[in-house]
Amino acid sequence: MNPLLKSKRIGFIGSGNMAQAMIKGMLESQLTVADHLFVSNRTPGKLMKMSENYKVNVCQTNEELVEKCDIIILAVKPQDLIAAIEPIAQIFLDKQVVISLAAGITMQTLEKHLPQCRVVRLMPNTPAIIGRGTLGFFMNEPDEGLETLIEDLFSPLGSVMKLQDEDQFEAFMIACSSGTGFVFELMTYWQEWIEEHGFDPEVAKAMTVETFLGAAELAYKSPDVGLEELQARVASKKGVTASGLESMRELEIERALRVSFEKAALRNKEMARLLK
Ligand SMILES: NC(=O)c1ccc[n+]([C@@H]2O[C@H](COP(=O)([O-])OP(=O)(O)OC[C@H]3O[C@@H](n4cnc5c(N)ncnc54)[C@H](OP(=O)(O)O)[C@@H]3O)[C@@H](O)[C@H]2O)c1
To answer: Last residue of some domain: 163, 187, 220?
Structure first.
């Protein structure tokens, strides 16, 4: 157990999917103990489940949670975040660390509502549920102790990356968090094409998953080899793969992806304007 984390009481405002994934990861990795974890939620149903499944402390109000915790994780949907913190903003203390998981709520907005706290933006992605996430974080002021704490706190969920500024944070969010959704879109097309060639859906899904997993793992285990080189090793000149790749380039798959990334980034900016 990280000695710095050992003494910290960690609270989650919002007990939905991400809070549950994080609590599960933190407990399974023995990073902390259930007695040091606190949860609150808008409605009571999920709190009972949290208490039964993880034996964490349930708070009846967000206020009670803030009063009891050193680190407060804002795990509500972006559109609910301001309503959750605004009525209790004055009870946060300057020694408390607040970590927002929300897309579209900028550091400036968070600091406007909680000027007294040390605020961190953290973006997980869904593979965090199985400990294979990619998590990026950003904070305004450099703070080595806090950086180490964030890295240690979230490492059970996957690889944790510190980002230099909010532009990087937003690019990270599109590429890695929304990106997980984009990869599933591609995988769906893969599976459909395989099914059209007579395979059962489960087999087609397994073939798709194994292909993506194998390619990703090969790249992961070849740190000194670039993606282009790995691709060149599959495609011999004028061969089958080369022919498919040529078509992918003619059809401008890169352009389609770039436009989609930019569209997602635009939506993020729009949300940031609305959720101040
Ligand atoms: N899930 C992901 O893959 C993922 C990935 C990246 C980032 N995130 C971010 O993580 C955050 C949480 O996402 P999620 O998927 O866990 O959402 P979720 O499953 O919808 O959970 C959100 C929870 O917040 C509760 N809540 C809403 N307003 C509240 C308030 N005022 N006080 C206390 N609790 C309140 C909701 O309560 P009710 O039960 O009453 O609805 C709900 O249980 C979001 O900001 C999201 O953008 C999620």
So the answer is: 163
Domain annotation covers residue 168: no
Ligand 1 centre to CA of 1 (Å) is 27
Domain match, 26 and 113 both:
yes
Same domain, yes or no, for 191 and 72?
A: no
Q: Which of 163, 186, 204 is the last residue of a domain?
A: 163
pTM confidence score:
0.93
CA gap 92, 97 in Å, rounded: 9
Question: Could you tell me the residue range of the domain that residue 236 belongs to?
Answer: 173-274
Choose among 42, 72, 77, 76: nearest CA to 60.
42
pLDDT at 49 over 80: yes
Give the C-alpha separation, 96 to 262, whole Å: 35
Instruction: Please state, rounded to an integer, the average pLDDT across all residues of the chain.
Output: 94
Q: Whose CA is nearest to atom 19 of ligand 1?
A: 16
| 41/124 same-domain check | yes
The string of pLDDT tens digits covering residues 197-246 is: 999 999 999 999 999 999 999 999 999 999 999 999 999 888 999 999 99
- Residue 204 CA to ligand 1 center (angstroms) comes to 33
Task: Answer whether residue 62 shows pLDDT above 60.
Answer: yes
- Ligand 1 atom with least separation from CA of 83: 31
Is pLDDT at 2 greater than 80 in this prediction? Answer: no
Query: What local confidence, expressed as pLDDT, does residue 1 receive?
Result: 57
Looking at residue 44, the DSSP 8-state letter turns out to be S
- Cα end-to-end span (Å), the chain: 37
